[in-house]
Design a protein that fits this description.
399 residues; alpha+beta; Trna Endonuclease, Chain: A, domain 1; 3 domains; five-stranded mixed sheet; four-stranded antiparallel sheet; 16 strands; 42% helix; binds zinc ion; pPIWI_RE_Y; REase associating with pPIWI RE domain-containing protein; pPIWI_RE_REase
C-alpha cells in the first residue's frame, strides 16, 4: 500500500538534483548568515529538502549536520555516494571552505555548480529570492539582456565589436576601458563595470587593495589568503601572492605545473572595475574559448565569422569551399549539457564544438544524442589542417 504522502518524485536522478540544489542553497545561506539573519531559516528549510530527497534513515537530519556535510565532498551524501555517474566534479565538490577568519565561505566549485545545477524546489522556497539573482536567471536570460543592449539597431558588425570588446575586457582600469569603448565604438551593456569584488582583493600591509586578471579569461581571480586562482576551475593556473620589500605592488609566483602562462601583474582596486559575475560566467568564460578557437582557425587560413546572424550560432568557418557552423558548448557537467541539448538542439547543419578543456565529454554526448554532430576542438583543427594541406598541394600541382 502506498503512503498517504507521496514523495515529490520517485525518479532517482530528479531526487539527486533536488538534493544538490538544496545543498547549494544551504551553503549559500550559511555563507551569508552574518549579513542576513534569516539565513538560518533557509538552512533549516533546505535540511528538509535534503531529508526528503534521501528518504527516512539516511542523510543529515539536523541543520548542523547539514552544515557539517557542506564542508565535506558531496559524494559523501548517501544519495550521491551510491551513484555510479561520472558527473564531473559533483561528487568531489566541497561547497563550503574556511574563510581564514574562523568562518565558512562558498567555495569556487559551489559557485560553478550554482550555474548549472539549481532546479526549482517549490513555490514557497523559491519565492524567497535567496540566491544571488544571476544564479536564478538562466544563462540564456543573462545573455539575451546583454546582447539586446549591444545589438540595439540589429547591426551585426556593431554586435560583434561589442561582444568581442566585452569578452576581451571583462575587467581593467576604468580609464583604459573608457578609451577602448570610445575607440572601438563598442556598446556597453546595462550595469557596465562595477567595483572589483572583495573576494578578489589582496590587502597589503599599507592597506592597499590589489587584484589580478585571470590569464585565461582576464576577470579578477579569487584571492584566498595568499592563494590566487580563477573561480572557473578549468582555468587552472594557481599562484601565490606575496609582498616584496621595496616593491610597489604585491607579486605572484606560479605554484602549479600546468602549461606556461604569462604571470599577471597586480592592478590597484582603486580606479578598476569588472563586469558582474553572471556576465562573466555566461558570456566571458565561453567567449574566451570562442575567441581563442577563432584565432587558431584564422592562423590556419580559415575565414571566421563570430556569432553570425546576430548569434544564431557561434562560429561560421570557411576554408577552401568547406564550411563549418559551430556552437561552442562549455559545460562542467556532461549531464546538464545533454539535458539542454535535448531540450534545445542546435539548428540544422550546426555542430556542437567542445573546447579542448571539455573534449572528454564528446563520447557521452554522441552516445546520448546520436543525431547531433559533435566535434572536439582537436578534431576540428585536424580537419582544417588537412583541408589547408590539400589546398597547398593543389596549388603546388598547378604550378
Ligand atoms: Zn578565468
Amino acid at each position: 500500500m502506498s503512503g498517504l504522502v507521496a514523495p515529490p518524485s520517485d525518479d532517482m536522478s530528479e531526487r539527486r538534483r533536488r538534493a544538490v540544489t538544496a545543498m547549494l542553497r544551504a551553503a549559500y545561506a550559511w555563507s551569508a548568515r552574518q549579513a542576513r539573519p534569516e539565513a538560518m531559516r533557509e538552512v533549516a528549510r533546505m535540511t528538509g529538502f535534503v531529508m526528503e530527497a534521501h528518504g527516512p534513515g539516511s542523510g543529515p537530519v539536523t541543520p548542523l549536520a547539514l552544515v557539517d556535510a557542506l564542508r565535506r565532498p558531496l559524494g559523501e551524501l548517501p544519495i550521491l555516494g551510491s551513484t555510479d555517474s561520472s558527473d564531473d566534479g559533483l561528487r568531489d565538490a566541497v561547497l563550503l571552505e574556511p574563510d581564514g577568519v574562523g568562518g565558512d565561505r562558498l567555495s569556487a566549485p559551489a559557485l560553478d555548480l550554482l550555474c548549472e545545477h539549481v532546479v526549482p524546489l517549490d513555490a514557497e522556497a523559491d519565492g524567497q529570492g535567496w540566491l544571488p539573482s544571476w544564479t536564478r536567471m538562466t544563462a540564456d536570460r543573462i545573455r539575451a539582456r546583454a546582447f539586446a543592449a549591444m545589438a540595439g539597431p540589429k547591426d551585426q558588425r556593431l554586435y560583434e565589436t561589442s561582444r568581442k570588446f566585452l569578452i576581451e575586457h571583462p575587467a581593467g582600469r576604468l580609464q583604459e576601458l573608457q578609451i577602448g569603448v570610445s575607440e572601438t565604438g563598442a556598446r556597453m551593456m546595462p550595469g557596465g563595470y562595477r567595483p572589483i569584488p572583495e573576494s578578489s582583493l589582496y590587502r597589503t600591509r599599507d592597506d592597499g587593495a590589489w587584484w589580478w586578471p585571470c590569464p585565461d579569461c582576464r576577470w579578477p581571480m579569487a584571492v584566498t589568503r595568499d592563494q590566487v586562482q580563477c573561480r572557473y576551475r578549468p582555468h587552472s593556473t594557481v599562484f601565490r601572492a606575496a609582498e616584496r620589500r621595496g616593491a610597489k605592488s604585491p607579486e605572484l609566483t606560479r605554484v602549479d605545473e600546468g602549461p606556461a602562462v604569462k604571470t599577471p601583474v597586480a592592478l590597484s582596486a582603486v580606479g578598476s572595475g569588472c563586469v558582474g559575475q553572471g556576465v562573466w560566467r555566461f558570456i566571458v568564460v565561453p567567449g574566451a574559448s570562442e575567441l581563442r578557437i577563432a584565432a587558431q582557425l584564422e592562423r590556419l587560413g580559415a575565414d571566421v565569422e563570430m556569432w553570425p546572424e546576430l548569434d544564431a550560432y557561434d562560429l561560421h568557418v570557411t576554408i577552401g569551399g568547406t564550411e563549418f557552423r559551430l556552437d561552442v558548448k562549455e559545460y562542467r557537467s556532461p549531464h546538464r549539457l545533454i539535458t539542454d541539448l535535448r531540450a534545445r538542439p542546435p539548428r540544422a547543419q550546426v555542430a556542437v564544438l567542445l573546447p579542448r578543456t571539455h573534449g572528454h565529454q564528446a563520447e557521452a554526448v554522441a552516445t546520448a544524442l546520436p543525431r547531433i554532430e559533435v566535434l572536439t576542438e582537436q578534431r576540428l583543427l585536424r580537419k582544417v589542417r588537412r583541408i589547408k594541406k590539400t589546398i597547398e598541394e593543389r596549388k603546388d600541382g598547378d604550378r
